[in-house]
Amino acid sequence: MTEYTPGAQRPPAPPHRPATPNRSTGPSLSTLNAIVWALVVVDVVLIGIAIAMAAQFFSGPSSNQVADDRTPGSSSPAPDSEPDGSEGQEPDAEDLADITGAETFTTPTGNIICTISSTGVVCSIAKLNDTPEENPNGCEGFIGYVVELRSSGTTLPCIPKSELPVAAGDGIEVLEYGDSKTVNNFVCESSNTGMACEDSNSERGFKLARAGITTH
């Protein structure tokens, strides 16, 4: 300790330094407010998205979407599908049949339908084991679903897709397995392996089955 001598000049006092404010280590109030508002905005956006998704889910597909799911003529079989007996039509056999002498019959399964008359026989099959090739050799349709027998021999006509054969409906005579039908010189016999028809004069004929058509 320095001794003070009267009359001596006192040493100058040290300069006054302002007190340094305490620095806070946490975020300021303005920063906390900004974070809170940001969270509020995010919550509002998420609630809006949830409401929109719920409304879309419960409203179901629109009428336009339902219509787009249906292709024109959707009730008809696809071009590469096998006829299932629900579409098409029975073959037209008027050119082979006498108006008063024709007889139409089917196998017990209804898969084969035949019309026999004094001028010939025409038979069709609704389902085959293998779908024939479409549009072969200039045919705009299928060959192999219908076979015709005349005195001149057998032919396999081209059948348009819209006229593919169908299974027999009610009201058509059933030719039981082992039974036959004869008109003039044409005869057809039903069996569990298919339908066989022949011209007794020329011995030409065919057999129609799920495996296909064979001629002789």
UniProtKB/TrEMBL annotation:
Name of the molecule in the record: Uncharacterized protein
Which residues span the membrane? 34-55
| Keyword Membrane listed | yes
Which segments show compositional bias classed as Polar residues?
61-78
Keywords of the record, alphabetical order, are:
Membrane, Transmembrane, Transmembrane helix
Compositional bias, Pro residues, is annotated for: 9-18
Organism from which the protein derives: Populibacterium corticicola
Query: Which region ranges are annotated with the description Disordered?
Result: 1-26, 61-93
Keyword Membrane applies: yes
Q: Provide ranges: composition bias, Acidic residues.
A: 81-93
